[in-house]
Amino acid sequence: MATDLRSAIDLHVPTAVSVKGLDKSFGSQHVLRGVDLDLAPGEFVALLGRSGSGKSTLLRVLAGLDTDYEGEATVPGRRAVAFQDARLLPWKRVLDNVLLGQKRAKERGLETLAEVGLADKAKAWPHTLSGGEGQRAALARALVREPELLLLDEPFGALDALTRLKMHALLRRLWAAHRPSVLLVTHDVEEAIALADRVLVLTEGRISLDAQVELPEHLPRRSPEFADLRDRLLGELGVAESER
Asked: Distance between CA atoms of 68 and 133, rounded to whole angstroms?
């Protein structure tokens, strides 16, 4: 496929994301088909889709990890990515992993570790961390960069149910404190509803559903609104009512 790169960094709107007509193929496989997407400053958006629908490909384009595409992608200059695998370097201690590639002072790294509840793990080796602690360290490494755009590729997919819930609460607190724009790629419909302000469904390379999340403050997961949106999203993902 011919490369048609028209990416730009808009310094006047540093936290806005604008994608227009994004096309991406791998050989004969057409993965993204004219995707249009906007993220407002400080907005938290979740992206759902079946396996192979192009979710991670879109995230990699926004992260600048994939530059061979057609269309336009305008993203902020300061971006950070966290993946399902924490990807900590085993030969560096936790604090050194958090500050990897940064000229930030040690104090800033320690402050960020404290924010994610790992103040006592700064000198620990990565292999001594639990799965949840590893993801907290990965979030700290992303946040220490003070990103205007935070990209999350199924960061809690390998965690047990209880740890996932704790990480959900932590992520919401961190987002409220720092207010980056967030794009969360996930397979978990309930996770998407619980965390995001808006949920998108990517179907065969196109955004087929764009839904605002409007839930009551009291017991939102138990509300009829939560159940209705979950059923709507599952239906869009092709999950039959009898399978829910």
From this structure: 35
